[in-house]
User: Fold this.
Amino acid sequence: MDTDIILLGHGSGGKLSHQLLEELIIPTLSGVPMAGRNDAAVLEHNGSRFAFTTDSYVVDPVFFPGGNIGGLAVNGTVNDLAMVGATPLVISVGLIIEEGFSRRELAEILTSMREAADRAGVSIAAGDTKVVPRGKADRIFINTSGIGFFNHTLEINGSNARAGDKILINGTIGDHGIAVMAKREGLELDTDILSDCAALNNLIEELLEEGEAIHVLRDPTRGGVATTLKEIALQSDVSITLDEAAFPLKGAVRGVCALLGLDPLYVANEGKVLVLAAPEAAERLLERMKQHPLGRDAAIIGEVTAVGGGRVQIETVVGGMRGVEMLSGEQLPRIC
Amino acid sequence: MDTDIILLGHGSGGKLSHQLLEELIIPTLSGVPMAGRNDAAVLEHNGSRFAFTTDSYVVDPVFFPGGNIGGLAVNGTVNDLAMVGATPLVISVGLIIEEGFSRRELAEILTSMREAADRAGVSIAAGDTKVVPRGKADRIFINTSGIGFFNHTLEINGSNARAGDKILINGTIGDHGIAVMAKREGLELDTDILSDCAALNNLIEELLEEGEAIHVLRDPTRGGVATTLKEIALQSDVSITLDEAAFPLKGAVRGVCALLGLDPLYVANEGKVLVLAAPEAAERLLERMKQHPLGRDAAIIGEVTAVGGGRVQIETVVGGMRGVEMLSGEQLPRIC
Assistant:
């Protein structure tokens, strides 16, 4: 493999992404550890904590079942802020548009952004528009950056997992990735699989009422649940065991995954949160999730079994144990 | 002209950009007026003011005389924060990379970002990397967003120009645009024209010691000095007269402009600031500028002649007066 050029896998959210980040981007951009390993940076100014995050969206196709790139970009940035426990306040929008893009589609995308922002209770405060010649971009790319503030003193981040923690998820896995993939590849499905794209800040706010019992929040986007939990295991230096049978998974998603040889554990979600929390709060958190419109299919899917190791393993439905590693290379490019 | 599609000119920073912004983007993204008309949004949270801005960079070529897309992106966002009088604190970096891009060039770009951030005194706190397949982007696009805070209560924005204000600029115009253009078109020039790409926050901080005498700060990037002053005239509802003979302009830039039929007044700058200030402070500001490494060629180039009108006119070297309008369409695409 030519190591001198950037590969698609470097954008996968998996192993190659992490190598690029750890070997080149973080050391070059900053002498001190960046917050790049969490969803958002938590910073302080004049005694006040705030969170700051950025994401670029290059999803193909731009319109997919259950959403479009606009709502995806707003929800994604809102979620990144919520994942460190911040209350999202404002976001910015940077558009890179390919010459010839339809103005009507642009309007539709912007409308989705506005609606998503309204639902999440954030305002869009800054923007920028660039246009590049035909063939120099693919329709439209959107960057959203965001700022959130804290109304509590909890420290929620990927280094906080503890032995005994239960791992919860608020619903079915893989919906977003498979919805985008099916549309892109023109698959004819019996049932519609819709992206789960949604803003999670309201749900997170309710969960945070459990206070210090909440140790880690992370949205399993690129790289899916498997890569995200492997990251947390490494960041917190703990070992994790998952129960395959406990994972909420739509039959249609399972079917498409089987057909295409994809593992739903590695497929991107855009409206899901993994919660690692003290065991005594787990059932209450599950109940809170299930009461929320975005958590009806919530489940406890595993636990932190030990300090050290950085390992994730999964008890399969047939009774075996297999190790879970980060996605290596690119399973589904341009999923967000 | 087909009004249903996005044209290159919609990214020019000129008339078409403004139409798109005013007719579609601002009304759709926000019910209340966005800060989109200033370089950065000025917001308030818990009684503390902060500034927030975003910009995507799509410059072609990525490496140009005097800099590259990395330093350009950092300086551009630092400058946008400085233009509302904020002290830049942190920036984010969103990379969109075309598959096959050289890792060595990526390292060089990231190093420029780091160096620019160090010079400006900001930290890079958040990042994101996406990779798209070959042919779906043009080498690399970079979004930088930034947050700044205020250590004063001045209100500096484009609506603040007043009759009698003097207009200053900190040096020669058109250097960035012509440097990029010459490199892109492979022009063989006798002398090197270098981009003026630089962080202006340190210079601005010194100028702000003049306090309330400073009314407007604006960096004349896309669309150049002419478009920027026209924007200010409209935002403040004033009329402006410029003195063509007073404009600092390098002979080489003048020459290339003449050769290619470009008007340097419309060519992008990346290390220049237009200052509109009370007349009694103008000479002191000029002196402060000239003492600063980024202001050696500073000059007073015009004044606000009247309230109302939204007109900009220029006294030409040969003694005539001509009206200045926003750039219509695209003079130099992908200049930043």
In short: The helical segments of chain A are 15-29, 69-82, 103-120, 175-184, 201-207, 224-236, 251-260, 279-291. Chain A has two domains: 36-149, 166-324.
